Amino acid sequence: MRILSGDPGKVNFALSVLNVDGNKLDIIGTRMFGSPIQNLTGDLRSVTKKFIDEISSIDKQYGPFDAMCFERFQSRGLGGNTIEAISIMLGVMAFYCHKKKIPFFVITASQWKNAFNRHENLKALYAEYNLTSKKSKKAIHEFDAMLIGVYTFYKLNELTPFAGIQKQIHKLIDRFLNSPKL
Q1: pTM
Q2: How far is CA 65 from CA 3, 37, 62, 124, 167, in A?
Q3: How far apart are CA 6 and CA 31, in angstroms?
Q4: How far apart are the C-alpha atoms of 6 and 28, rounded to whole Å?
Q5: Burial group, residue 67, by CB count within 10 angstroms (0-12, 13-18, 19+)
Q6: CB atoms within 10 A of CB 101
Q7: What angle do CA 25, 57, 154 make, to 5 degrees?
Q8: Residue 133 has what DSSP assignment?
Q9: Alpha-carbon distance values, 124 to 79, 102, 120, 131, 162 (Å)
């Protein structure tokens, strides 16, 4: 099963590609999205085309995907157009998946984070692996994107999300930190 997952943001939009074969999880790679839709003024065709072109390139290089899953943004009192930009990007992704016949899911942060925290302490892992630092090998958003993909695998296979993760989390994080850039 090949999954493209993401933690979208107007500026920090992370992607992760996972491959699961039986009980073997491979992190194909992660990256920060190069062309998120940020400016919502004027004609959006050119920025939307760049966004679609980047997703299409990832799909061609790392697909075909059995599913795509992205965190659904919920406003937390932020000003500006962040929620609008992310909603547009998710809508574009949904349409792309519709055209390609790829199952598409959006989940709230609380869904996957609460499921993870039932088995491990996410904030403690962020700190232990220095993921909040700009000096980290990978961005915290890439870690979240990877975990969203893992959550999606569990859900698609009707398994309790992150069950047993505590036995393998440190190996998984090491593989994540050493995974290639997409």
Answers
A1: 0.94
A2: 6, 23, 8, 32, 27
A3: 10
A4: 14
A5: buried
A6: 7
A7: 25
A8: S
A9: 29, 34, 9, 10, 16
pLDDT for the residue numbered 133: 80
Q: What is the pLDDT of residue 147?
A: 98
Place of tokens 């943004």: 73
Q: Would you call 116 exposed, middle or buried from its count of C-beta atoms within 10 A (0-12, 13-18, 19+)?
A: buried
**Residue the block writes with tokens 């997409």:** 182
SS3 7: strand
- Per-residue pLDDT, averaged over 135-154, amounts to 94
Give, in degrees to the nearest 5, the angle at Cα 175 between 171 and 181: 165
The residue whose two tokens read 């990877």 is 146
Burial of 3-33, coded b for 16+ CB within 10 Å and e otherwise, reads bbbbbbbbeebbbbbbbbeeeebebbbbbbb
Alpha helical stretches, state H, the chain: 45-62, 82-100, 109-117, 122-128, 140-156, 165-177
For residue 18, list its beta bridge partners.
3, 27
Beta bridge partners of residue 71, listed in sequence order: 107
The 10 Å CB-count burial string (b at 16+, else e) for 119-149 is beebeebbeebebeeeeeebbbbbbbbbbbb
